[in-house]
Specification:
Layout (H helix, E strand, L loop, with lengths): L7 H6 L7 H13 L11 H6 L6 H12 L3 H10 L12 H15 L7 H17 L3 H7 L4 H20 L17 H12 L3 E4 L10 E4 L4 E3 L18 E4 L2 E4 L2 E4 L2 E4 L1 H7 L3 E5 L1 H5 L26 H7 L4 E6 L3 E6 H39 L6 H21 L2
Antiparallel strand pairs: 1-2, 1-4, 2-3, 4-7, 5-6, 8-9, 9-10
Helix pairs in contact: 2-15, 4-5, 4-10, 5-7, 5-9, 5-10, 6-7, 7-8, 11-14
């Protein structure tokens, strides 16, 4: 049990009640995708920071990104709301249901509408303002919001912010960490970081369909909840719109998603796991449902363009305004210019470098503290104990993921 050289799966299988092997594998894939583990299952600095917060590792990444872009308060609300009941109540009478839907749309419109998550952020912030003026109860009644859920969210946000303060992630005065808390574009980017790859696209309209239907990455067709801000996106401009969502559940009306938000293209290109680029010849020739199965070359974070002289890929990249086909995570195709995708690769690299810089900055403070502590209390912990501590941190991250499955 105390062998520091065994891998994560072998370590967990030694427990009295070990998790299912497939669940461990899925958790390891998620941790590698978000940069918490290396391909060799070694804990990264990013993973160490994620393990310090009592939330899903993907939510931890969202919080670090929110701090980087000065959008902390909404991220805290979203992080705490992820494990809470929906604050918006569902009235029984049809008339009240229409009023509840209109009230939710009104709140979401403060950030551009078409987002259940931003409706929750707006509801919480408006509730806090109403609470300060002694009108919290009237506000909840008017907008069909559960005051009990609001109070729990308020308590959880304070505790989570306290954890960030305790670990030195944010200063004691965090007002400067939320300067962009009301920017709709940045808010949707924060949501994308926290929910990706829970992504789908809106299915085109049909005469027999009365509610919005989303096709997920796995190809499943799921319905939008009846109280969602995206339940009736009847305009054709929303055909194949990109949607991120919390989770998929099975209800009385079939398979539905919990909450969802319409995303622009740029956050998906920035925060996706893999991007592949090819010529537009295949894009125009193959425009079908199995387009994601079309071979577009090696997928990765390096631009995969034919390098041989005379190959179509080389000709396309010579012209910045020429169109190229971009496939995100072997599923989602886009048509952009070569110049635009080149800029996107640079932004992806700079964004990851910025997040890592933030982590290194915090790690440097911790290392300085350890050096000063060792000078006052001279002792040398063994390498075996250090490796076991890292192993426990990895298992803690996995246990968080397993509990949320």
């Amino acid at each position: 049990m105390l062998d520091p050289n065994c891998n994560v799966n072998d370590f967990l299988q030694k427990l009295m009640d070990p998790p299912v092997a497939q669940s461990i594998e899925n958790a390891l894939i998620i941790l590698k995708d978000i940069g918490a583990l290396t391909p060799e299952e070694e804990l990264t600095e990013l993973g160490q920071k994620f393990g310090q917060l009592p939330v899903h590792p993907r939510i931890s990444k969202m919080i670090y990104f929110a701090i980087l872009v000065n959008c902390l308060d909404p991220a805290l609300i979203l992080a705490c709301a992820a494990d809470e009941k929906d604050p918006f109540t569902m009235p029984l009478s049809p008339g009240d249901r229409k009023k509840a839907a209109a009230a939710k749309h009104e709140l979401a419109s403060l950030y551009g509408d078409h987002s259940d998550h931003l409706a929750t952020v707006a509801a919480f912030q408006c509730w806090k303002n109403a609470k300060a003026s002694g009108q919290a109860k009237e506000f909840c009644s008017k907008y069909f919001i559960s005051q009990v859920v609001m109070k729990r969210l308020d308590d959880l946000c304070r505790k989570l912010q306290g954890e960030l303060n305790r670990h030195g992630v944010i200063p004691s005065s965090s007002s400067n960490c939320s300067l962009n808390a009301h920017d709709p574009g940045i808010l949707r980017a924060v949501i994308a970081v926290g929910l990706y790859p829970m992504l789908g696209r809106m299915c085109p309209l049909s005469k027999n369909r009365t509610r919005s239907v989303i096709e997920t990455i796995a190809g499943a067709k799921v319905r939008v909840p009846s109280l969602s801000n995206n339940v009736d996106m009847s305009s054709t401009k929303f055909d194949e719109a990109l949607i991120v969502f919390d989770e998929i559940t099975r209800g009385d009306w079939g398979v539905v998603i919990r909450s969802c938000t319409v995303l622009p293209t740029i956050p998906v290109l920035l925060f996706s796991r893999e991007i592949a680029v090819s010529t537009t010849e295949s894009y125009d020739a193959v425009k079908s449902d199995d387009e994601e199965d079309h071979e577009v070359g090696n997928v990765g974070d390096a631009m995969d363009i034919d390098k041989e002289v005379g190959r179509p890929g080389e000709k396309i990249m010579l012209g910045p305004e020429n169109s190229v086909k971009v496939v995100v995570d072997r599923w989602l195709p886009f048509k952009v210019t070569a110049f635009e995708i080149a800029q996107m690769y640079i932004l992806r690299e700079r964004l990851m470098a910025s997040i890592l810089f933030k982590v290194h900055e915090l790690s440097l403070r911790f290392k300085i503290f350890i050096i000063l502590f060792w000078q006052c209390h001279p002792f040398q912990p063994s390498i075996c104990i250090c490796r076991l501590n890292i192993q426990r941190k990895i298992c803690r991250l996995i246990s968080v993921l397993l509990c949320m499955q």
